[in-house]
């Protein structure tokens, strides 16, 4: 008897808990087989997403990023989108709890006494029937989620919210990256405008000296026209650079939520500040590739795949009977004075089962469509992971190449500066020629112009690594093994995840929403 009672109790608990038709959480095999590390650098590291741009050690850059995070309109739109999806989660969750409504009404009816039963019996002493009824009641309606439809729809809504929150983080990362990139462009263009102006003055002196030497028969017409052409071409390039600078400053103003022409204070460099700083510290690039899941776009793609998985269970549950309970209780009387007497109560209970029999294939089509959507989301997730991995590898390779170019131009600048110093000392001793000194200075300006572009390219390459990795990392040799334990390499299309996070509640949503501004 005790055994039968235990079985009955277990069966009752199973019925009350319901069931779910959602597929088990799984990791696509391509993602599960992702390499343990990248190929382009020697160290491993752990995720450090907070204020990663401070590695550039540039106060102007920090000021611009802080302004963009506070005023960028794309981020404001993304925040509002997160709030919209959070409210949609609350709408979906409402199906998990009973709906209660309050009703208060008064009705009055009048009819002749000689119709209906009054007409059958005849000879009634009254001519009309008058009825007045007052009532106040509470109504309750609830659908037992036996097949898990409402629960799966709620979990799908949670996953949608988390995906949208990751979209916000993606937008935040994009705004920060665009702000830094545009700022680097402005710094480079300002340097190039100044260097080009200096070069125009040097070439003007050089062309003037060549004119004099030509009329004295000391040089050829080819040299004369060569320097005249070089001078005019350099002079013509100056307005182009100034237009590019104005365009970059306008784009930065839009990123900061401001009108063009209002950035002078933000872009001002204080005493003792060197802007921008060149970061040559090594990047811990041989990170465990599983850290890619920290990228917000990867997380968003995963969450959308999870939402589609839950919706498979919800749509399949619609193929089965629905159990609904309805109840109403209240007070009813023919007079207001007696309405609130305890003995005037009434109670109605109703339980019903509704089974879909003929829907024209709509419900099965919905279930099939949800499975097809899940396949789409899974493919999009794999593509996002592969793209992210490729971006990291490419950015690491580009960073190494830009460092080599920067080092080469640094050595070239040292050589060009040595040539200028030598020509200047020769002039001071009276054994040099001014025209050779002008050529050396013009060459130094050209090298410094190339070096300015190389500094910008190196900084943007470093930015590209942070953007590809979704933030910054610090060296940590013990991190990779811990993060890779969640993956099991099997030969199927999907690899089960050992610790699924199916049981998400509103606390997860509220907690995640609170971190959205970090």
Summarize the structure.
The chain is of the alpha+beta class and 518 residues long.
Overview of the structural elements:
The structure is a single chain. The longest helix has 68 residues. The protein contains 13 helices and eight strands. The protein has a four-stranded antiparallel sheet, with no helix packed on it. Strands 1-8 form a two-stranded antiparallel ribbon. The protein has one domain: Outer membrane efflux proteins (OEP). It is of the alpha+beta class and 518 residues long.
Query: What would CATH call the class?
Result: Mainly Alpha
Structural class: alpha+beta
Question: Which fold does the CATH topology refer to?
Answer: Outer membrane efflux proteins (OEP)
Distance between the termini: 59 Å
Fraction of helical residues: 55-70%
How would you describe the shape? elongated
Features:
single chain; 518 residues; alpha+beta; Outer membrane efflux proteins (OEP); two-stranded antiparallel sheet; 59% helix; elongated; disordered N terminus
List the helices and strands and how they pair.
Layout: H1 2-17, E1 26-28, H2 29-32, E2 45-48, H3 59-71, H4 73-93, E3 99-112, H5 117-121, E4 128-144, H6 149-215, H7 221-255, H8 264-267, H9 296-317, E5 322-333, E6 345-354, H10 362-429, H11 434-469, E7 472-475, H12 479-484, E8 494-496, H13 506-514
Antiparallel strand pairs: 1-8, 2-7, 3-4, 4-5, 5-6
């Amino acid at each position: 008897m005790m055994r039968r009672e235990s079985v009955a109790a277990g069966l009752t608990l199973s019925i009350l808990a319901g069931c779910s038709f959602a597929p088990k959480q799984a990791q696509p095999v391509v993602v599960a087989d992702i390499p343990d590390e990248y190929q382009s650098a020697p160290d491993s590291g752990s995720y450090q997403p907070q204020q990663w741009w401070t590695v550039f050690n540039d106060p102007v850059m920090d000021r611009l990023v802080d302004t963009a995070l506070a005023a960028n309109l794309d981020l404001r739109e993304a925040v509002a989108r997160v709030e919209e999806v959070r409210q949609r989660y609350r709408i979906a969750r409402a199906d998990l709890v009973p709906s209660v409504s309050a009703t208060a009404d008064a009705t009055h009816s009048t009819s002749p006494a000689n119709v209906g039963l009054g007409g059958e019996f005849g000879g009634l002493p009254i001519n009309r029937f008058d009825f007045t009824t007052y009532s106040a009641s509470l109504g309750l309606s609830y659908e037992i989620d036996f097949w898990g439809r409402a629960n799966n729809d709620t979990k799908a809504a949670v996953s949608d919210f988390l995906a949208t929150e990751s979209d916000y983080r993606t937008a935040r990362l994009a705004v920060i990256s665009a702000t830094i990139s545009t700022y680097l462009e402005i710094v480079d263009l300002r340097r190039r405008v100044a260097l080009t102006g200096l070069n125009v003055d040097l070439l003007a002196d050089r062309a003037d000296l060549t004119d004099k030497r030509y009329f004295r028969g000391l040089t050829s017409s080819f040299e004369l026209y060569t320097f005249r052409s070089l001078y005019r071409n350099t002079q013509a390039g100056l307005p182009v650079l100034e237009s590019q600078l104005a365009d970059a400053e306008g784009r930065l103003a839009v990123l900061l939520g401001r009108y063009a022409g209002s950035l002078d204070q933000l872009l001002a460099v204080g005493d003792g500040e060197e802007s921008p700083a060149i970061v040559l510290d090594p990047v811990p690039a041989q990170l465990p590739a599983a850290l890619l899941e920290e990228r917000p776009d990867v997380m968003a793609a995963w969450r959308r795949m999870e939402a589609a998985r839950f919706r498979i269970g919800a749509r399949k549950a619609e193929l089965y009977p629905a159990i609904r309970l309805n109840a109403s209780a209240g007070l009813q009387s023919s007079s207001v004075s007696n309405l609130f007497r305890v003995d005037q109560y009434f109670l109605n209970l109703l339980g019903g089962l509704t089974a879909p029999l003929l829907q024209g294939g709509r419900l099965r089509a919905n279930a099939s469509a949800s499975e097809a959507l899940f396949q789409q989301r899974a493919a999009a997730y794999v593509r996002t992971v592969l793209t992210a991995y490729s971006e990291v590898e490419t950015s690491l390779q580009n960073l190494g190449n830009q460092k080599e170019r920067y080092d080469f131009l640094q050595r070239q600048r040292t050589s060009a500066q040595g040539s200028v110093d030598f020509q200047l000392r020769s002039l001071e001793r009276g054994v040099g020629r001014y025209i050779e000194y002008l050529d050396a200075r013009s060459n130094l300006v050209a090298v410094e112009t190339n070096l300015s572009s190389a500094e910008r390219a190196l900084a943007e390459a470093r930015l590209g690594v942070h953007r590809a990795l979704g933030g910054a990392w610090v060296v940590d040799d013990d991190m990779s093994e811990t993060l890779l334990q969640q993956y099991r390499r099997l030969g199927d299309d999907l690899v089960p995840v050992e610790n699924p996070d199916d049981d998400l509640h509103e606390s997860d949503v509220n907690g995640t929403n609170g971190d959205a501004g970090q």
